[in-house]
Amino acid sequence: MKGVELYGQVRRAVFVEGMSRREAARRFGIDPCGVSFVAVTQQFNTTPSMGRLTLNVLLSFAHFEREMTFLLEQPHAADLAGHDIESENGVQS
Asked: Do 48 and 93 reside in the same domain of the chain?
């Protein structure tokens, strides 16, 4: 349960106080070499290759979602992204 409480404190420091993740890790004494992935709602092991694949797929979706959120918050970035998508697919505007 200590890990969940620490997670809440780090999350609050990063998102509410505006602290960087590196600063929060230093503040709470988190060693980057001793950090492991823990899924709260699901149990899966990241030691075998199938577990690492699952983790990478989840992280890819999270990265994609973060980029889409950024594009929605930045109107000029959304225009540029739309232009890039059109040019990649061979669509002329």
From this structure: yes
Of 68, 43, 72, nearest to 55 by C-alpha is 43
Q: Whose CA is closest to 13, among 24, 29, 26?
A: 24
**Residues spanned by the domain of 51:** 44-93
Distance CA 52, CA 37 (A): 11
Is the confidence at residue 60, as pLDDT, over 90?
yes
Alpha-carbon dihedral 76, 77, 80, 84, rounded to 10 degrees: -170
Residues 25 and 48 both lie in one domain = no
**Tens digits of per-residue pLDDT, 21-31?**
888 888 888 77
d(CA 72, CA 66): 10
